[in-house]
Amino acid sequence: MASPDPDPDQTSYIKMATAAVDSRATDAALVGSNCQYAYCNQLDFLPFRCQSCNKTFCLDHRTEDGHACANPGAWARRQREADLARISAGEGKRMRDPVAPQRKPCADDACKTVIGTVLQPGVHCGNCNRDYCLAHRLREDHDCARKASPVSASRAAAAVAAEGAKSALERFRLWGQAKKQQAKVSLASPSQKPKVAQMLAVNSLKKTAKGDAKVAPDKRVYLFVEAEAATAKAKIPKGEFFYSQDWVVGKMLDAAARSLQVQNINNQSNSEEHKLRVFHVEGGRLLEFNEKLGTALQSGNTVVLLRGVGPAPDLIEA
């Protein structure tokens, strides 16, 4: 069984048939070559060339020790010099210490000392939540009582934002009450309006409503859709559309926003301040995004697009 060809980068010898593109290598592969070891001279059709002394040898004398090489170690020295000359992957780059402290100025207003170094590691004050140099580490040295904690400031800002959201919700609650009173007159519930009149109103809506023609007629829910002027500014304030009963409210919201040309970034922002939601006038509540239209709504209902009201349960009190 033939042995695999030696790797020229791993051994000091290599088969002449693959060692170099010269006449000697070609001739050796065709007619063979005599071993140049003084006491051998054997004809070998698969000879080896020593990469240190550049002579030809048979299988038994291919190594430097096997033929008492005249230039021992020359190949190894060339390999070592090549390795040293090769640029390493991290050469010229400075490694960052993952646990090194962050350099920053002392939190005292009049101090210019840079902390976070070996000589000035910095001392954290738990009362005002700031970092100081050694000279201002004590509370009385950096006027701790006068400085508000950043954590406290952020909590105060969050409280202000929550109060603003509460005020906005109350404003929409009052708006929803007025909208429901208006709906009692223009879109009365079936118990307040004759069934015949309801059917005529829905039939009239079916003639003018627009929607996806691929939705089967028996699967359609016909709705009056509006955009609340203060928060969901629309190029088309209101319209009459139909949607599939199998759609969820989120999909209907996307379609309605496109139809009324209302900015919709629900898929890009997690902030309730920017999110659009759907208010069901007859039901007096905000619809959840995953509710089925066939369950939450019926033909002839009115829905309104609102922004910034949050996932509140009911906007209108019973």
From TrEMBL:
InterPro entries: AN1-like_Znf (IPR035896), UBL_ZFAND1-like (IPR057358), Znf_AN1 (IPR000058). The keyword Zinc applies. Signal peptide: none annotated. Residues 29-77, 100-152 form the AN1-type domain. Pfam families: UBL_ZFAND1 (PF25327), zf-AN1 (PF01428). The keyword Lipid biosynthesis does not apply. Keywords: Metal-binding, Zinc, Zinc-finger. GO terms for molecular function: zinc ion binding. GO terms for cellular component: cytoplasm. This is AN1-type domain-containing protein. It comes from Parathielavia hyrcaniae.
